[in-house]
From TrEMBL:
The lineage of its organism: Eukaryota, Metazoa, Chordata, Craniata, Vertebrata. This is Mitochondrial elongation factor 1. Keywords: Membrane, Mitochondrion, Mitochondrion outer membrane, Nucleotide-binding, Phosphoprotein, Transmembrane, Transmembrane helix. The keyword Transferase does not apply. Pfam families: Mab-21_C, MID51-like_C. The gene is MIEF1. InterPro entries: Mab-21_HhH/H2TH-like, MAB21L/cGLR, MID49/MID51, MID51-like_C. GO terms for cellular component: mitochondrial outer membrane. One of its GO terms (biological process) is mitochondrion organization. It comes from Oryzias latipes.
Length: 467
């Protein structure tokens, strides 16, 4: 009994519980013996210390004594259990958090269990889940305000492009009736519902007719230049069908059909058209763009709306390969005889098919990424083909493309692009030997990689810079 009164001095009133514990400890050996009392003492002492700390806690847990030490701290042994969440458990928690609403009450069960020792990890996961939900909302808001083009604007732009196509068709047939051409047609993202921000670009495809027995195609990787994705078109059977047997022999350089020479022919023709007169009839302002990698017309069809129409000669070979007269960006002079292989039709078809199979958000993710690159100066060099193929490659690894997963897939796309830039290679999903980054300089790769890497920590920044 000697220990009952002495330990109670200077302490707050504990309603007799502390006194009872002391009484039990001091008299335990009378009932349990020395060994039993020792075991009971160890267990009870831990409970008593926790209780004493709890009732002595100040109003504010962060209140400091004059000595600089907090007057109440969590016991050192609290949370020191060796049990931790393994990888499987963390994944389960993460997946569960993604489906939770943003309300803080969502984590509270109906009955109050004992506090979790890993509450800090739960709060961290919950914060990440809320950030994903926030990004999801921002992406859809960005899509509605900046990505999606009103149907009326698209209709007017298509009508302007069609007017230009009609004028060129009439002029070419009248000026050069013997030029072997198939019917010209309009193409591009404006006609695939993949154009973003503003309806300002269309492609006028001009299919050339080549005699099958006079021309053959050679893939770039089978030549000394070794450039996958580009092709040579070689003149054949010159001993039986001498020069000028084909209309396109006039565009032959070193035994190969030169896309540069073909463009020069059309450039002279288009340059001879009286565009001011045609523009006055159509109520447009039309002028060729100089300089330009391809033959491009600038069409101002309304006071504040401008459309750029690329004039693209096209070859469709016997095996279905589509080649366009668009030069290699970094080595146009050295590779002036190379025709670029176009995968756009097949890429778009695959993207559409995948979305139709699972109601996915691939096209939406692509349009958001295109808008970000179009509006962000440091990302201008990332084009539609590169973004489309990055998404197609990502689709091979990731199965969840539901609309609710847009934020996660957008972040994955950023990570994937950073990885491809770091490797200096983005393989074409339809032809892996083709490197879609082969026309970027080292400085451009570094700038793109740095911008996207920084965006991983704050992806919403990409959306803020464009607003």
């Amino acid at each position: 009994m000697a220990g009952v009164n002495g330990d109670g001095k200077g302490k707050k009133d504990d309603n007799g519980i502390g006194t009872a514990i002391d009484f039990m400890l001091s008299n335990a050996k009378l009932v349990l013996g020395v060994g039993g009392a020792a075991m009971l003492g160890i267990a009870t002492l831990a409970v008593k210390r926790m209780y004493d700390r709890a009732i002595s806690a100040p109003t504010s847990p962060t209140k400091m004594h004059q000595g600089g030490k907090r007057s109440w701290e969590e016991p050192a042994w609290m949370g020191s259990s060796p049990r931790v969440l393994n990888h499987s458990m963390k994944s389960t928690v993460s997946r569960s958090l993604q489906t939770l609403p943003t309300s803080s009450q969502a984590c509270e069960p109906a009955s109050r269990p004992k506090p979790l020792r890993r509450s800090g990890a739960c709060q961290s996961d919950l914060q990440r889940a809320r950030m994903r939900l926030s990004l999801q909302e921002r992406l859809w808001e960005f899509y509605q305000k900046h990505v999606n083009i009103p149907a009326e604007e698209q209709t007017v732009a298509r009508r302007a492009a069609l007017d230009i196509c009609a004028e060129l068709r009439v002029f070419l047939h009248a000026k050069l009736p013997d030029m072997p051409l198939r019917e010209m047609y309009l193409s591009g993202s404006l006609y695939d519902d993949l154009q973003v921000v503003t309806a300002d670009h269309a492609q006028l495809m001009v299919p050339l007719v080549l005699e099958k027995n006079l021309w053959s195609s050679i893939p770039g990787e089978d030549t000394i230049m070794n450039v996958p994705g580009f092709w040579l078109v070689r003149r054949e059977n010159l001993e039986y069908f001498p020069r000028n047997s084909s209309y396109w022999d006039r565009c032959m350089v070193g035994g190969y059909l030169s896309p540069k020479s073909v463009l020069e022919v059309f450039d002279k023709l288009v340059g001879s058209i009286n565009w001011p007169a045609i523009g006055s009839v159509l109520d447009y302002i039309i002028r060729p763009v100089v300089p330009s990698e391809t033959l491009t017309l600038e069409v101002q069809y309304e006071t504040d709306r401008t459309l750029y129409v690329d004039f693209l000669p096209l070859l469709v070979m016997g095996d279905g390969t589509s080649l366009i007269a668009k030069p290699h960006r970094l080595a146009a002079e050295r590779h002036e005889n190379l025709w670029r292989q176009s995968f756009r039709v097949a890429e778009t078809a695959r993207l559409r098919a995948l979305d139709q199979e699972d109601g996915g958000c691939r096209s939406t993710c692509l349009k958001v990424a295109k808008a970000v690159c179009k509006l962000h100066p440091a990302l201008h060099r990332l084009n539609s083909s590169q973004l489309t193929n990055a998404i197609l490659l990502l689709s091979e690894k990731e199965g969840d493309w539901t609309q609710e997963a847009l934020a996660d897939r957008f972040l994955q796309l950023l990570r994937a692009l950073v990885g491809h830039l770091e490797a200096g290679r983005l393989p074409c999903a339809l032809s892996p030997k083709v490197n879609l980054f082969c026309e970027l300089t080292e400085q451009e790769v570094d700038e793109l990689g740095y911008t996207l890497y920084c965006a991983l920590s704050e992806p919403e920044g990409l959306l803020k810079t464009t607003q």
